[in-house]
Amino acid sequence: MISSGSNTLSRWPTDRLLLWLLRGVATIAGAIVLLIVVFLVVEALPVLRHVGVARFFTDPSWHPAEGFYNLTPMLWGTLFAMVGSVLIATPLGILSAVFCHYYAPPAIARPYRRLIELLAGIPSVVYGFWGLVVLVPLIGAIRPPGPSLLAGIVILTIMILPTIALMADAGLANVPQQYLRGAAALGLPRWATIRGVVFPAAKSGLFTGVILETGRAIGETMAILMVCGNVVQTPHSLFDPMRTLTANIALEMAYALGDHRAALFVSGLVLMGMIAALVGAADWISRGRIYG
Amino acid sequence: MVKTMARNLDGRELLALALVWSAATLVTATFCWLFGDILWHGLSHISWTFLTAPPRNAGREGGIGPILVSTALILGVCLSVSVPIGVGTAILLAEFTTDASLFGRLTRRSLDVLSGVPSIVFGLFGNAFFCKTLGLGFSILSGGLTLACMVLPILIRSTEEGFRAVPTGYRLSAAALGLSRTTTLVHLLFPAAVPGLLVGLVLGVGRAIAETAALIFTSGYVDRMPESLLDSGRALSIHIFDLSMNVPGGDPNAYASTLVLVVLLLAINGTASWLAERWLHQRIVTV
Question: Which tens digit of pLDDT belongs to each residue from A159-175?
């Protein structure tokens, strides 16, 4: 706010002391990310050194006890679940924000928005539990076994929907009023205004929402662990059980030793890489380059 | 010609209307189903005994007394570490750095990344750093410290908002009176920024209480009453996970525990948005 020129500070020794104290504390806060990366790398290094990166993709299977470390089935699992849920949640979330802003009468819009805010705070283990006792038996009745990629996609969709809905809501709220008045003056009907004026104006907010929900979908562990069946295989249909990278860590960390443990830290590194890429993308969008 | 165009337009408008309303209905219905299911199955098991008794028979019978205590202890450790660090960082970012300064930008960027780190990765880190390297083992202390790393970004962002909401006039008047910046901070800015801090605190508590994945390998599974912070303690969310996944016949008590957790979270988040609307005059988005 007010610049901290050293001339204003030098008069008061307490100010200088305070500043150094705050700098120390902020350094701790800022260094946590580095610390996380360093620890992941240090723990992953043994297996990276004598197994190599390539074998995480070329080994015949994931059998860490026998020295096979193929992560690709889990990578596909993470990817399928993420793509499926983002594809469903994005239109639903954006439509629900549109509903709040342009379709719902105020008496409905307010409680509806409150509902979405409540949902954003529900923990993943609750969604997972509900998926396990309600959704999985339902899917099992249609096509056994029940725990499946489909169950994972549905639960993830429900979980990330509040994220995109709230971000889209904020994005739509930022559309300048005169755009809407201009559209009204031209006699554009409601949906034509939304499609032709609101969406292009809110584009960067919507994209940021998509990136945030993608991050949540990649990182989600408990819910997906509870409904996906956790068989290590690349799923060939929606009804196949499968395992994601995150679930793999949660399941095997308890008893993993030596190279096996290190291999789990490698998958942690992979997850961190994905998240870093997403943060980079979000940054790129917020700088406005998306308006090309 | 004109007529068909008009009809096409109408058709599209109607289709959009139907789509938007059905999306909203679908979302509402799904969540009513979820809440209804938990309420319906959970409510009949909730009693004072359930809230205070220790779990028996792997959690199938008995209550969640020690688990609530462990959860509270983990939360206490988490807050007592994250609040000083978070508030300090927020003050530095809001009051002592400009947006252009390198240190400020680096800290902000690293907090952005931190807020995106998946919780299971926090679990890995906590296990490697707090449990192994620092030698704390599976303990409430390790779990709380891991969660402290997790809630920092929320806490800092919200506290910073609180400080930025204080009018610049306060700082200028204080400077004109020749007050030191420390005095200004302690006596003027801090009291004015308390609402932001409170909102951050409540949101952080909400995030910490909801967390499961980061706690499995840090605070552990033991469901006895913890005797010290170095004991392993089972958090409420882990209790739900364990009952539903690993204990056949644990569903009734899992439902009841879920209801307790959901009610706690609704209360916490309700408090946060009430505080924010009342004092900060802004709506908060907890993404």
Answer: 999 989 998 998 898 89
What is the interface pTM, i.e. ipTM, of the complex? 0.87
Instruction: Please give the single-letter amino acid code of residue A225.
Output: L
Q: For residues A207 and A245, state if they share a domain.
A: yes
Residues of chain A contacting B129 with CB distance shorter than 8 Å:
35, 39
Domain assignment present for residue A120? The answer is: yes
What is the residue-level pLDDT of chain A in tens, covering all 292 positions? Answer: 444 444 444 567 888 888 889 999 999 999 999 999 999 999 999 888 888 888 888 888 888 878 888 889 999 999 999 999 999 999 999 999 999 999 989 899 988 988 888 888 888 899 999 999 999 999 988 887 888 899 999 999 999 999 899 989 988 988 999 999 999 999 888 899 999 999 999 988 898 889 989 999 999 999 999 999 888 888 888 888 999 999 999 988 888 888 889 999 999 999 999 988 888 888 887 775 544 3
Write a three-state SS string for chain B.
Answer: CHHHHHHHHHHHHHHHHHHHHHHHHHHHHHHHHHHHHHHHHHHCCCCHHHHHCCEEHHHCEECCHHHHHHHHHHHHHHHHHHHHHHHHHHHHHHHHCCCCCHHHHHHHHHHHHHHHCCHHHHHHHHHHHHHHHCCCCCCHHHHHHHHHHHHHHHHHHHHHHHHHCCCHHHHHHHHHCCCCHHHHHHHHHHHHHHHHHHHHHHHHHHHHHHCCHHHHCCCCCCCCCCCCCCCCCCCHHHHHHHHHHHCCCCHHHHHHHHHHHHHHHHHHHHHHHHHHHHHHCCCCCCC
Return the residue in B5, B17, B20 with the most chain A beta carbons within 10 A, the one to mutate for interface testing. Answer: B20
Nearest neighbour of A12 by CB, restricted to B168, B182, B255: B182
B171 closest CB neighbour out of A2, A103, A272: A2
Probe site for chain A from B27, B85, B134, B184 (most A CB atoms < 10 A): B27
**Who among A96, A121, A219 is closest to B119 (CB)?**
A219
Closest Cα to residue A239, out of A132, A135, A145? A145
Residues A71 and A208 in one domain: yes
In degrees, rounded to 5, the angle at the alpha carbon of residue B205 between the alpha carbons of residues B202 and B208 is 155
Q: Where are the domains of chain B?
A: 2-43, 49-280
Enumerate the residues of chain A whose CB falls inside 8 A of the CB of residue B286. 117, 120-121, 166
Domain extent, residue A170, equals 62-286
pLDDT tens-digit readout, A113-155: 888 888 888 888 999 999 999 999 999 888 878 888 999 999 9
Q: A8-33: b or e for each residue (b if 16 or more CB lie within 10 Å)?
A: ebeebeebeebbeebbebbebbbebb
- Report the domain count for chain A: 2
CATH topology of domain B49-280: MetI-like fold (1.10.3720)
Q: What's the pLDDT tens digit per position in B182-232? A: 888 888 888 888 888 888 888 888 889 988 889 988 988 888 888 888 888
In a domain, A56, yes or no: no
**Closest residue in A to B235 (Cα–Cα):** A125
Give the Cα separation of A132 and A227 in Å (integer).
Answer: 5
